[in-house]
Amino acid sequence: MVRLFAAVPIPFDIAEALQRRQRGLPGARWRPIDALHITLAFYGEVVETRADDLAAELTRARVDPFELTLEGVGAFGDGHRNRAVWAGVAASGPLNILAGRCRAAGQRAGVIMESRDYRPHVTLAYLRAAEDDRVGAWMTGHNRLQSPPFRVDRFGLYASVLGGAGSHYTLEREYLL
Ligand code: 2AM
């Protein structure tokens, strides 16, 4: 079994600017710079043969290259506490279409997909017992985040390997738009 997701990688200069915001929040486990991405579709644990089918189906999940801007920050919680902080993504039709096509590719390959709404974001940290007022203060300090627009001309199929210091991602296959 392999844990898979499709994602848009964040260009290095944009990721470096995000990295400068990864501080000042006790309890945050900041994600390393090479792990920063925008998930398009999450496939979960998939058997290897189905992973091969998925990789092939994703060749049909194409849109023309497009531009994205990162905008604002936020937090995801589970109703009790905040679990992650993230950078937001300015509304993008092409991104939503690409995400829908990656989801459809999963369904064609026989992956049982979760039915969550698609909320594009770049997770900056997972939180371990971070205090709500500190999370609020960090968000207030960064809510004017606005990246320069960057061109999206590829996406990847990534495997997520759970490790002691958080998940590590490996690029399994890259798709040029
Ligand atoms: P996250 O960044 O908000 O945690 C690899 O885990 C990627 O798939 C992450 O970007 C993660 O989002 C996303 N993802 C979507 N649904 C997920 C789920 N049910 N479990 C784990 N990761 C999920």
Radius of gyration: 16 Å
Q: What is the tally of beta strands? A: 10
Give the CATH class. Answer: Alpha Beta
Low-confidence parts: none
Order of helices and strands: EHEEHEEEHEHEEE
Number of domains: 1
| Secondary structure: helix percent | 25-40%
CATH topology: Cyclic Phosphodiesterase, Chain: A
The class by helix and strand makeup works out as alpha+beta
**Compounds present?**
adenosine-2'-monophosphate
Gross morphology is globular
Task: Tell me which CATH architecture applies here.
Answer: Alpha-Beta Complex
Major sheet description: 4 strands, antiparallel
CATH superfamily: Cyclic phosphodiesterase
Detail the topology: elements first, then pairings.
Blueprint: E1 2-9, H1 12-19, E2 28-30, E3 37-46, H2 48-57, E4 66-68, E5 70-77, E6 82-89, H3 93-108, E7 121-127, H4 132-142, E8 150-152, E9 154-161, E10 168-176
Antiparallel strand pairs: 1-3, 1-9, 2-7, 4-8, 5-6, 6-7, 9-10
This protein binds adenosine-2'-monophosphate.
